[in-house]
Amino acid sequence: MTLNKIAYSAFIAFMASLFTMVSVNALSSGERDEAADDELDAITLDELAEHDGAESCWKAIHGRVYDVTDYIPDHPTDEEIMLEWCGREATEGWDNKRPGVPHSPRADGMLEEYLVGRLVDEEGEPFESEAATEPSDTVSQDTDTDEARLSPVDDERLHRALLGLPLDGRYRGVFSDGGEMQVNVQFDLRDGRLSNVSYRHLAYRGVDYLALEEGDELYPVMVQHQQITERLEGEPVTRVFALYEPERMVDDIDGYSGATLRGNKVISAIRDALNRGVYSWP
Ligand code: HEM
């Protein structure tokens, strides 16, 4: 009986502390959501500028300052892209991760965790950046609408659903059309990220692109396909969907090469590989 009583008291004490923890948490996260700008620490441009590197990286975005030091290794690009904006007003970079393409609502939601204050000018007044007040040439006026934010090329949730979270391993897949194998791609997946992306075959209308030499008329198209593999390196597998807009992945899309570059064939080959399943376990 006594044992039962002890167990019962322990259970009640546990539930009470759990309840307290949950309520404190709810309260504090509620407070954070509602935090008005003037309750946040005022941070000047000079103070911001002291945190301009990988050891401490603060960024001002839409009037608020974020300490994103810990997030840098997790950001889905090379570190340089993140580091370039440390210690400064970074709204322009935030709203244009690619020209005219803002970060996703999911990324917006992540910022809160890194909030450290609000940006003020020398008089202590809220600092208004040009990027935040004047729409830049490259940013479409519509980028704030749900329609623009949920463009299929940017919708990370849609991408994950389409790919069905594949296993890690080595993959091979092809794109064939008109009786001809055009793309045969091989890559490794580790923690959902691509590596060692390479073409085992790349051809169109009987031309073997991998055998082309500098100076050949079609050589630039092969270079662009190589850029695709380089730029997918280390990226989450969902990044392949950006290839529906190849200008987001490769340099110098001019009239000629834009017409011949087929990012969507590479997407097809990669999705074929994922459908086939793991080819080997490297
Ligand atoms: C201001 C400087 C920044 C620049 C220039 C930048 C640039 C980029 C680029 C180039 C991509 C990948 C390409 C793409 O999705 O089209 C990307 C994706 C992403 N970035 Fe950033 N980034 C910046 C800051 C941040 C910060 C501070 C966070 C979060 C704390 C963040 C979170 C993300 C996330 C979650 C993605 C995945 C795609 C998305 O959700 O939009 N980025 N960023």
UniProtKB/TrEMBL annotation:
Keywords: Heme, Iron, Membrane, Metal-binding, Transmembrane, Transmembrane helix. Residues 126-151 are annotated as: Disordered. The lineage of its organism: Bacteria, Pseudomonadati, Pseudomonadota, Gammaproteobacteria, Oceanospirillales. SUPFAM superfamilies: Cytochrome b5-like heme/steroid binding domain (SSF55856). GO terms for cellular component: membrane. GO terms for molecular function: heme binding; metal ion binding. The keyword Ribonucleoprotein does not apply. InterPro entries: Cyt_B5-like_heme/steroid-bd, Cyt_B5-like_heme/steroid_sf, Cytochrome_b5. Gene3D superfamilies: Cytochrome b5-like heme/steroid binding domain (3.10.120.10). The chain crosses the membrane at residues 6-27. This is Soluble cytochrome b558. Belongs to the cytochrome b5 family. Residues 40-120 form the Cytochrome b5 heme-binding domain.
